[in-house]
Amino acid sequence: MKKKYETLQQFIAGYFHQDWDLEGSSDLEIARLFANKDSVSAKIVVTEIDDLIEEAKEKPDIIDCKLKKFGCEYRYNLDFSSGKEWLNRIKDIIKDSI
After folding, report:
1. Under a CB-based contact definition with an 8 Å cutoff, are residues 34 and 91 in contact?
2. Is the pTM of this model over 0.85?
């Protein structure tokens, strides 16, 4: 049985780990790299981001908690007001790249 947000977790852990900046100079480059490598998973990630954002309407802290649990080492809080804002950006980049 597939875990909730499994593909999103794999994306975050696999692309925004502690050495993410060795693969690209920005979150934009990393998200494009992912979308270009695996368009099937990229479409699933877009859906899972939407689902997580929807869940956050009832549980406001869930996005930051999940990003931490997923192993996100990208410091989105330096450029964005929230994890939600950053995930929306990532979602848009992926959608534009597939």
Report:
1. no
2. yes
